[in-house]
Design goal:
Strand content: 25-35%
Shape: elongated
Oligomer: single chain
Number of strands: 8
Distance between the termini: 7 Å
Structural class: alpha+beta
Strand order of the largest sheet: 1-2-7-8
Radius of gyration: 22 Å
Helix content: 25-40%
Number of domains: 2
Largest sheet: 4 strands, antiparallel
């Protein structure tokens, strides 16, 4: 947990506390995602439920009518997911034993037209959808690695009689995926008034 204090009065301060979520929700089942993840893992279960026997069966069914991105996995301690192959991007023999094609994330073009009201999916629009799907992959990676955070904003005052600290929770929220406060939405949730006082402070949570 990390605490950052900002002074409001001689006997009071506001403390920002960031900490790991104990019971983070799996974004693949908790949220209404645009993409569907179909995965075939050597170890564990990933992605969304599906009935495709193997990647070849999936591609035969969806390579024409959907926008499809590969999901590559590098598992060595933490889990890294990417639409790019990890081969040649990781140390030595790791690319043989720890890297693989995990599966695909896809969205049918018909659903895109319905969701966005588009009649045509231009190259620019396709790029927009691909970026959105990559965001879903990053969010899932954060979940798999336990990088889901919550925060509290607490007003701490010192009791004039006993001198002990007394705390009042002013704001709290959880379910932020990712260690980057801007990408995860923590900064927006906290608000610029408080955040402007934290710009020179490391607010990354500690394990």
């Amino acid at each position: 947990m990390c605490e950052v204090s900002t002074s409001h009065a001689s006997n009071a301060r506001t403390v920002l506390r960031l900490f790991y979520e104990d019971c983070a929700e799996d974004p693949r089942s908790a949220f209404d995602n645009l993409g569907t993840m179909v995965c075939w893992a050597r170890r564990g279960t990933y992605g969304d439920p599906h009935d495709f026997e193997d990647p070849e069966a999936f591609l035969r069914a969806h390579h024409r009518d959907s926008i499809v991105l590969p999901i590559n996995i590098y598992e060595h301690g933490l889990i890294a997911l990417s639409t790019r192959s990890f081969t040649g991007r990781v140390p030595g023999y790791h690319d043989i034993f720890d890297c693989a094609l995990l599966g695909f994330i896809y969205v049918p073009k018909e659903r895109i037209r319905e969701e966005y009201g588009w009649t045509r999916i231009t190259p620019a629009r396709r790029h927009q959808i691909e970026e959105y799907l990559e965001g879903e992959i990053r969010e899932y990676q954060d979940y798999l690695n336990g990088h889901v955070f919550a925060y509290q904003v607490v007003r701490v005052t010192k009791c004039p009689q006993c001198g002990q600290d007394e705390e009042e929770i002013l704001d709290s929220c959880g379910g932020f995926y990712g260690a980057d406060p801007e990408r995860s939405g923590i900064r927006d949730a906290i608000g610029e008034d408080l955040w402007s006082q934290l710009e020179d402070t490391d607010v990354a949570p500690a394990a």
